[in-house]
User: What shape does this take?
Amino acid sequence: MAQPGGPGWERRSGLRKTEPYTSEWRQTMKRVPIPHTELEVSQIGFGCMGLGGGFTQGPLSAGHEQQVRLFLDTADEVGVNLFDHADIYAFGRAEEAFGKVLKERPSLRDRIVIQSKCGLRRLEGPYGKPVALIDFSYEHILASVDGILRRVGTGYLDILLLHRPDVLMEGEEVARAFATLKKSGKVRHFGVSNQNRYQMEYLQSFLPDPLVANQVQMSLLHSGFVEQGISFNQSASAYPDGLEGLSEYCRMKGVKLQAWAPLARGLLSGAAVTGQPDAVIKTAALVKDLAAQHGVSVEAIVLAWLLRHPAGILPILGTTRPERLRACVQATTIELSRLEWYGLFASARGLPMP
Ligand SMILES: NC(=O)c1ccc[n+]([C@@H]2O[C@H](COP(=O)([O-])OP(=O)(O)OC[C@H]3O[C@@H](n4cnc5c(N)ncnc54)[C@H](OP(=O)(O)O)[C@@H]3O)[C@@H](O)[C@H]2O)c1
Assistant: This one.
């Protein structure tokens, strides 16, 4: 298999060649404000989990750096300025590879928005076995940010997200960590990830400044955030717990909702669907039809479904392949009708609408 960034990597992505790039692409990518901040970000962000070799233990290679160069070139080409990291991606090597290329392009830092996450840890537990845990202690948050800044080679993060809820968290302690980071200029704004409305409200009650983002898994195949809005009071429906009022809360408070895994790992846009539920197979076919009707890629239809939601959801892409990234940003060139939007939702839901 071709290594990321290595010879033949892009060619072997399995994608058809898209039209040559023209500046029109950049023009269709709007900038949207992140409320409560000075930040203006592209409607779509690039996720960095796939940089640096993923969750393997090897060292960084020249191929990993080349992958970042192509990634940043593509972002520039299509008008994307938001990059989503986490201290844990590729065990720090995603940020490290990104940082090495950023160093070659010093003027880039002020033109992009860098977001990273902290909290997930793997420590050696009893009997030498690794234990995965979540740590929102003052010491860990500060140490994590120092590590991120060192690896990325920047003096500040635009946004820091708490990666997953820490059941042992103390609001006062997180607030103290945020205050120290803000005062030192190391982090400009704070947000969360994978938190429900009540967790957000609890944390917010300790903070002087608004939380600016919540990054949650959302896609046509992970649509609990929509389901909770339509299946309330329906005894026969698959009512998802935990998402009650999340999108409404974020809309009211001006918290930017970001969608991770927005492509559902390609299941509706060309990845093999053998053995998948009927609803997935039928929805993938519907996506293909709509793509042909709109003259865009299948990826664009899947992402346009998220973009059409009135909460202003910002998809964070997982691919790092230039061709697939280009296919994805075509989502900004169309707007799905209400009929198309509900048609896709009902199909992916695989159940009659209530
Ligand atoms: N906050 C959190 O807890 C959390 C969790 C997970 C991820 N994230 C963030 O969200 C970003 C996106 O997450 P994700 O990677 O799960 O999202 P995704 O965009 O849904 O999935 C990307 C993966 O799907 C594959 N894929 C897409 N289309 C395909 C197709 N037609 N055929 C075969 N494979 C296909 C890509 O492969 P190729 O690489 O070959 O294109 C890539 O490996 C991450 O980079 C990270 O920044 C956050």
Notes: The pocket of NAP is lined by residues 13, 47-50, 84, 163, 193-194, 215, 260-266, 269-271, 316-321, 324 (CB under 6 Å). The CA atoms of residues 65 and 100 lie 7 Å apart. Residues 11-22 have pLDDT under 50 and may be disordered.
